[in-house]
Structure formats: structure tokens, C-alpha cells
Amino acid sequence: MAPARRPTMPHDPADRAARGAANARRVQAMAAAARRRRRLQKLLPWLVILAAFLLWEVAVVALKVDPFILPAPSAIAASMVQWWHPLLDNAWQTLMTTLAGFALAIVFGLALGVLIGSSALLYHGLYPLLIGFNSVPKVAVVPVLVIWFGIGTVPAIITAFLISFFPIVVNVATGIATVEPELRDVLRALGARQTDIIRKVGLPRAMPYFFASLKIAITVAFVGSILAETVAANKGIGQLMMLASSRFDVPLVFAGLMVTAIMGVAMYGVAVAIEERTTGWAMRGQADQNVASLTG
């Protein structure tokens, strides 16, 4: 017969020390894995962008594509260095125009979204009008704006406002309208008024939807500004791209596109940073899922 093993006492100091050391090693491994994951998340976008540009450069060189058809990233970078002052000057104009239209979209979109989300009558009554208005191509609206306000900055601001207004309204209205009816009934039973429900429950509930719409709206606002500047403007990236097209300077056209993309990514990053600081509680589920993937 095999010799009987000495039973481990439940309060054996050696056993507690072994378990404590194992738990400490597990915590350290989890912390190291989390740090590696964060570093990878920070580096991954830059690695993807670098790989995309390298693939673009190699494809253009290998296939001997004419720069008039598709310039290589190196040619675009050279054009950006050559024309950096006009690009910077016109990019500033486009950025200010876009931010002005985007600010108007936030103010009016948030106010209308709260009204529509708070009233079923307004929700069903105004939605067909909003959808129909949003379906109208904004390129068809720009000539009308030029007739009304003339050539310049105002049509570009209004176009940026019109094209970024709809996502904000829809998301804010959805966030407020989806508050649980049971929760509304409980709050009314406790004496809360409709304005109290909207202010203390509806608006916090709509904040994740609101910031999700901001990340969409800020990118499409640049589309509206560039669109109006290509039609009728005295300054801006769109107007610079049209001048470059008339001179058949395709690298400069792509340089304008690159500058616009950089501004869009930068403003998207600002929206994400504000979202993380104000609605971090809404991302707890994703954080828990990341922790579970590390410990699973």
C-alpha cells in the first residue's frame, strides 16, 4: 500500500504563502498583459497607416502608374512640402468653417433631439420631414445658398451644418426615447415631472448616443465644407483643390485630400477624448470584456 499523504491543514502557513505567491504572480501577469495590450492599441493605428502607404508606394512604382492618374505618397509628400503655406492657410479656413457649422449642428441638433425624444407626437410627426430633408443631396442645395448668401464662407458653414445636423438629432432622440417605460412610471410615482425625467435620466442616457453621433458628424462636416468650397468659395481646401485640378496638378489635389483627412482624424480624436472623460461609465462593459479576455 502507498504511504498515506499528510493532509494539508486548512490554516497551514506554508499553504497560505504558496497561494499568496501564486495570486501575486497571476496579478503581475495580468498587469503585464494589460500593458502590452495598451501599447499595441496605441501602435496599431500607426502601423496600419504606415503599411497602407508603403503598399500604395510599392504598387504605384511596380505598376508604373502615371502621377497624373495616381501619384505616389512620396510625390504627395513632396507637393505638401512645396505648397505648405497655401495648404496651411486654406486648411485653417476650412477648419474654422467646419467647426462653425459643427457647433451650430450641436446646438440645434441637441435641442431638437431632446424635443423629439421627449414627445411621441413630435417623434412621429417630424421624422418624415427630417428624413426627407436629409435625403436631399447637399450638392443641389449649395447653389441655392450661393444665391441667398453669395460666394464666401456662409454657404460652406451652412452646408457643414446641414450635413452634420441629422446624425445628432437622430441619436439624441433615440437615447431619450428608449428610456424604459417602467422607469418613467416609477419616477412619476415618486413625484418626478417630465422635465425632471428628461434632465436626470433621459439626457444621461442619451450621452453615449450623443457622442457617437458627434464622431460621425465631425467627419461628415468636413465633407460639407469641402463640397461648398469646391462650388463657390474664395478660400479653403476645396477651392485650392479646384485650382490644382485646373492646373492638372494631381499631387496637390491629393495633398489637399491628405490635409483634410488629417484634420478629420484629429477632430475625431478630440471627440473620443471628450467622450472618454464624460461618459466613461458607458464603456464599463467593454472594459470588463477586455479583463475577461485576459483572465480567461
UniProtKB/TrEMBL annotation:
The chain crosses the membrane at residues 43-62, 99-126, 146-170, 209-232, 252-274. Keywords: Cell membrane, Membrane, Transmembrane, Transmembrane helix, Transport. It comes from Pseudoroseomonas cervicalis ATCC 49957. Belongs to the binding-protein-dependent transport system permease family. GO terms for biological process: transmembrane transport. This is ABC transporter, permease protein. Pfam families: BPD_transp_1. It is a multi-pass membrane protein. Residues 91-271 form the ABC transmembrane type-1 domain. It is found in: Cell membrane. InterPro entries: MetI-like, MetI-like_sf. The gene is ssuC. The keyword Transmembrane applies. GO terms for cellular component: plasma membrane. PANTHER family: ABC TRANSPORTER PERMEASE PROTEIN MJ0413-RELATED, ALKANE SULFONATE ABC TRANSPORTER-RELATED, MEMBRANE SUBUNIT.
